[in-house]
Specification:
The chain is an alpha+beta fold and about 375 residues long. It contains 5 helices and 19 strands. It has 4 domains: about 80 residues, conserved putative lor/sdh protein from methanococcus maripaludis s2 fold (Beta Barrel); about 90 residues, Efflux pump adaptor protein, beta barrel domain (Elongation Factor Tu (Ef-tu), domain 3), CATH 2.40.30.170; about 50 residues, RNA polymerase II/Efflux pump adaptor protein, barrel-sandwich hybrid domain (OB fold (Dihydrolipoamide Acetyltransferase, E2P)); about 60 residues, Helix Hairpins (Orthogonal Bundle), CATH 1.10.287.
C-alpha cells in the first residue's frame, strides 16, 4: 500500500512537469554556433582586392618635334623702282591688281632718249658706208690694212653707242619681273622720279615662305624636305602645312641657332607676308609606339616603374621612358600592347597584391559560358 502511493505521487509530479514545459510561451534559446553564421550571411561580400583605377596602354604614332616662332615672307617680292630719271607718263596697273610676268607697269617720258637714239643711228649708217668704201679701196691696194682696221673700229664704237642709247630707251618702260599682286603705289602720273625712287611693290603670294630658327642641338636631325606645321593668330585652330627647302649653312654665334626656310602653299592668298607664326618642325615619327598616362608612373630612386594588372594582381614592372607629351609618356621598354597599368591607387600597392579594377566588368562565374553571362546582363 505504501509503495503504490509513492509511485502515484512520483507519476503525478512527472506529469505536471511535462505539462508546465509544454505550455511555456518562451521561445527556445538559439544556439551560440548559429549566430556567426547568420551575421556572415547578412554582411556584404568583402572586395576581392584593393580598389584601383587602371587603363590599357595605348599604341600609336609618336612624333618627335621642335617648336619655334617665325615670320612669313612672300615667295617673290620686289619694289618697282626706275633705273633712270624722268617724268612718269603712264601707270599701267591698278592697286591690288594681279599682273602676269612681262606685263607693262610704268612708262617714263622717253622723247629725249629717242632723239639721241636717232642721232647715233644716223652716225652709225655713215660710218658703215665709209667702212664699205674703205674696204673697196683696200682691195684695190689704195689704202693700207691699218686704215681699214681703223674704220672698222669706228663702226664698232658707233654700234656700242647705239646699244647704250637703246638701253636708256628700254629703261623708260618697266615690266613685271614675275606674276604677282600689285601693292599700293607711291607716286602719281606726271610725277618726276629719280633713279631708285619707290613706285610700287609687287608680291607673289601663290606660295609663301616662313623663316624660323632652331637651336644647334637639332642640326643633326633637320634638313631639306622635312614637314612643318604653322599656326597663325589670324586663323585660330587652323593648321597650315609645308616643307623645309633650305637651311642656312652657318650657325649664328650670338644665339647658336640656324636659320631655316620652308615653303607653304597659299591657296586664296590667305597668308600674308609679315605675319607672326608658330612653327612645329617634325624631326621623326615612330610607328606603333606604346604610351601610358603620366600618373601611371611610380618612380623609385632613379628608376621608373608601373603596376601591371595581371590576373587580378599587380606586378611591379620597371620601364624605360621615351618622349614625354602632354599628360602621357612613351614607354620604350617594359610594356607590350594589351597590358593594363594602374593609374590611381598605387600608394597602398605592393608587388603581387590582389586588386579590383574600378569600372571593369565583373568576371563570369566558373563554369558559366561567356554567352550565358552576356544573356544574364541583358535580362538584368
Amino acid at each position: 500500500m505504501f509503495r503504490f502511493s509513492t509511485s502515484l505521487i512520483a507519476l503525478g509530479a512527472l506529469t505536471a512537469t511535462v505539462l508546465v514545459s509544454g505550455c511555456s510561451s518562451e521561445p527556445e534559446a538559439t544556439s551560440p554556433a548559429a549566430k556567426p553564421a547568420a551575421i556572415k550571411a547578412a554582411a556584404p561580400p568583402k572586395p576581392r582586392g584593393l580598389p584601383v583605377k587602371a587603363e590599357l596602354v595605348k599604341v600609336g604614332d609618336v612624333v618627335d618635334e621642335v617648336t619655334a616662332v617665325g615670320s612669313l615672307i612672300a615667295d617673290e617680292s620686289v619694289i618697282i623702282r626706275p633705273e633712270i630719271d624722268g617724268r612718269i607718263v603712264g601707270l599701267h596697273f591698278r592697286e591690288g591688281q594681279a599682273v602676269s610676268r612681262g606685263q607693262k607697269l610704268v612708262t617714263i617720258e622717253s622723247s629725249e632718249f629717242q632723239a639721241q637714239l636717232a642721232a647715233v643711228n644716223a652716225d652709225l649708217r655713215i660710218e658703215k658706208q665709209r667702212h664699205t668704201r674703205a674696204k673697196e679701196l683696200f682691195e684695190q691696194k689704195f689704202i693700207t690694212k691699218e686704215a681699214l682696221e681703223i674704220q672698222s673700229g669706228t663702226v664698232a664704237r658707233h654700234v656700242a653707242r647705239v646699244q647704250e642709247v637703246q638701253a636708256r630707251v628700254d629703261k623708260t618702260v618697266i615690266w613685271a619681273p614675275f606674276a604677282g599682286i600689285i601693292g599700293l603705289r607711291e607716286i602719281s602720273p606726271g610725277a618726276y622720279v629719280k633713279k631708285g625712287d619707290d613706285i610700287v611693290r609687287l608680291e607673289n603670294l601663290d606660295s609663301i615662305k616662313v623663316d624660323f630658327r632652331v637651336p644647334e642641338i637639332y642640326l643633326a636631325k633637320v634638313g631639306r624636305d622635312q614637314a612643318v606645321a604653322l599656326g597663325v593668330d589670324a586663323y585660330p585652330g587652323e593648321i597650315f602645312h609645308g616643307r623645309v627647302y633650305a637651311v642656312q649653312p652657318v650657325v649664328e654665334q650670338e644665339t647658336r641657332t640656324a636659320l631655316m626656310r620652308a615653303r607653304i602653299p597659299n591657296e586664296g592668298h590667305r597668308l600674308k607676308p609679315g605675319m607672326f607664326v608658330r612653327v612645329v618642325l617634325t624631326l621623326s615619327t615612330r610607328k606603333n609606339a606604346i604610351t601610358v598616362p603620366e600618373q601611371a608612373l611610380w618612380p623609385q630612386g632613379k628608376d621608373n616603374f608601373v603596376f601591371r594588372v595581371v590576373d587580378g594582381k599587380v606586378a611591379l614592372t620597371k620601364v624605360e621612358l621615351g618622349k614625354r607629351g602632354l599628360g602621357h609618356v612613351e614607354i620604350n621598354q617594359g610594356l607590350s600592347a594589351g597590358d593594363m597599368v594602374v593609374t590611381e591607387g598605387q600608394i597602398k600597392l605592393r608587388d603581387g597584391a590582389p586588386v579590383m579594377v574600378m569600372g571593369a566588368p565583373p568576371a563570369a562565374p566558373a563554369g558559366k559560358s561567356k554567352q550565358a553571362a552576356q544573356k544574364d546582363n541583358k535580362s538584368g
